[in-house]
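Why does this matter for the project? Reviewers at the last site visit asked to see concrete outputs rather than summary tables. In response, this paragraph embeds two records directly. Each consists of the residue sequence and, immediately after it, the corresponding structure tokens. Nothing has been edited or filtered.
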Amino acid sequence: MGNGANRLAVFDCDGTLVDSQHVIAAAMACAFRDNGIAEPDPACVRRLVGLHVADAVSRLLPDASAAVIAAVGSSFVQSGRAVRDRQAHEEPLFPGVVEVLEQLAARDVMLAIATGKSRRGLERTLKQHGLGGHFVILKTADDGPGKPDPCILLDAIAEAGSSPLATAMIGDTVYDIAMARSAGAYALGVGWGYHEPDELNAAGAHAILQHFRDLPPTLDTIWRTP
């Protein structure tokens, strides 16, 4: 572990802390309809959760102009708020989240989030689940380039007074794993999210968690490693 550095656990949000896939798929379907475009396959949308909105839309519409991508992205943001306001779909926490966050905080592990969500969207999610007080650092799509660029993770590490070797990034997609590896941090995949464990391993995950309760002992193991 980094000499004298604060231990830092950085979490992705959607697909790692919160199961938001149905809200995201519904919002993207609305955004496409509003712009006169056939709705995308929800399975394709699910695989892009975690990317910056513009990057996700670009992958769904590879031949679209910049203007169309911007319009769909804007509609997606507005639709997401409307879907959440209607409470048409639940966004439950994954099992064990609160208990494990409390365990880590009691061990003086600093907790942060690095997400492709907007700050407004993230703060709304944290407030909904009463998680706002658990995290000392929030890095969002408003703070820098989207995943897998390591910028927001490196910023979180610096802000925490940590180091890459004292930092673990916990996420459910290959974008999280690539970001962590690029930053020189430990990359921990989760088996309950939106990309398959085999994909996370192939992307370079140091370990795959099968349940949230696996996180504290996994952190103990990696941080004991010279």
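We now turn to the second protein, recorded in exactly the same manner.
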Amino acid sequence: MVLRCLDPQSFREFKLVKKTEISHNSARFRFALPKPSSVLGLPVGKHIQCRGKDSQGEEVIRSYTPITLDSDVGYFELVIKMYPKGRMSHHFREMRVGDFLPVRGPKLKINIRLHTGRFSYKPGQAGAYGMIAGGTGITPMFQLIRAILENPKDKTKLNLIYANVTLDDILLKKELDEFADKFAGRLKVFYVLNQPPQQWNGGVGFVSKEMIQTHCPAPAPDIQILRCGPPSMNKAVATHLDALGYTPNMQFEF
């Protein structure tokens, strides 16, 4: 019997067993589940809520999407960018191996603007996904990418536009590039940088209407465009999508 560990109402504590630095302000956190045979029990595309304390000792709760699936048995992982003034960032920055993190979930979000309700993934439910992510908004996209590409019965095509400030800010780039190479006919990744290095063949600046038109599937009844990023980016992307003819039913914002 598979033991699912989450409770949507009550916080349960999970032990940090590994912390891997990714960049100067981001890290990958691995938390052990109660038993080696346990799974987190989080549906694809859903969030968990994590509780911690800020620099003033005040309680803070934030939502995150693990990059692991229930096929990853015995643990789950979070990729966290720790901002200098972020309240929950302080908690993660101070965490050491052996510490415990209170978690509950899944957190279900209803997107009122788009009238699409809760996002739920079923293999083959869309012919193609266009994904537009900014910064840590890559985590729900990465989870969905894994779920689709690691399922041999799911033939959905994926197009990802991933925007960041600098090259060092790109999270999970190694993993994304490996997936893009392994599944060349099904996953295409287009990186966008606001401050690119001199030798750069990706996008420059902010995600534009032209980038979406070039790198995402065209409007159609069987496609969905998913977005997750800073509020200003989400708002701008929504405007572009509306202008390009994507109906509300074709859009979802995490």
